Amino acid sequence: MNDPAAEFQHETVLLKEAVDALAVKNDGFYIDATFGRGGHSSLILSRLNKSGCLLLIDKDPQAIAYAKEKYKKDARVVVWQGSFKDFPRALEQLEINRKPDGLLLDLGVSSPQLDDASRGFSFQRDGELDMRMNPEVGESAAEWINVAEEKEIADVLWQFGEERFARRIARSIVKKRVLSPIETTLHLANIIAGAIPKAKQKKGKNPATKSFQAIRIFINKELDDLEGCLQRSIHSLAQHGRIVIISFHSLEDRMVKRFLKDKSTRAKLPRGLPIMDSQLDEWQKKNGMPAVVFEIIGKPVKASVQEIAVNARSRSAIMRTGEKIA
Ligand SMILES: C[S@@+](CC[C@H](N)C(=O)[O-])C[C@H]1O[C@@H](n2cnc3c(N)ncnc32)[C@H](O)[C@@H]1O
Questions:
Q1: Which among 95, 153, 218, 306 is least surrounded, fewest beta carbons within 10 Å?
Q2: Domains, the chain, ranges and CATH?
Q3: What residues are paired with 322 via a beta bridge?
Q4: pLDDT tens for residues 163-172?
Q5: What residues line ligand 1, using a CB cutoff of 6 Å?
Q6: What is the DSSP code (8-state) at residue 51?
Q7: What's the pTM value of the predicted model, to 2 decimals?
């Protein structure tokens, strides 16, 4: 096998914090739903005994090939390629008749994806403009950007990148792609840089940063996948199962925060209502209020100063944990 991990490494973010938050039981069943290069998986496995089980999910064929090779002799490990939003389908297909005791999401892209120019994620290395986590499925960034309407491009850059020059950039993309189709990452990065006034460009930050992030989120339907996964965890996690999510983008974190808050908030009861604590959930359901499904565990966790010093990517990470209680 061509071993991509030998060439491109991923520095795992919040390694111990995330695995501690899963509260791994040594005979439990866990899902690392964003395997990458398995930093979190290795630590989870070190806490499982022979009866434990770990399901590894990733969309990326290189990550999957790496996982299959690495764990081919470990009977506790099962590997599945697909979106984490479909984790209940993975359980069905693999005939795992057990609900997971923990689900870990370490969102975004891995360093191997970013560092390999041919994957088309990077504005620093020239490569075919692709950006798909699974290059065998769906539309590439180049396919989209060469046909999308100006308004759609502007909306994507604004909505997923909060890029204040979204309209100017979209106008420039549409003008320039008539001259020659945008096929490479540097071609797109140069168009974006040219559309943002020099005086407004931040020193030390590539002007294409926000736009590339926005296009990647759009192409991979990252927010839809996250919402789908959170919703499915309501029914598909075991009692006292934990969901641990590491986000790198404010839109993701907002979604996770809102989900956990909505699913853990007890209604304020009218004063003097003659019901007991044990009847609260039933009363809440009967009155059309969302059921309390999760308990929020601890405060949001950020990377330590020491971690940020050795891994700059961890700077924007924020981790939240919920435990299923109903
Ligand atoms: C930040 S990396 C995870 C790194 C990993 N925790 C480690 O220590 O090596 C994110 C990984 O999740 C995968 N991924 C992102 N969104 C996904 C989704 N919706 N479904 C499945 N995999 C996804 C990416 O392909 C990438 O390999």
A1: 95
A2: 4-112+222-324 (3.40.50.150), 134-219 (1.10.150.170)
A3: 243, 296
A4: 999 999 999 9
A5: 10, 12, 34, 36-40, 57-60, 63, 83-84, 106, 108-110, 133, 225
A6: T
A7: 0.93
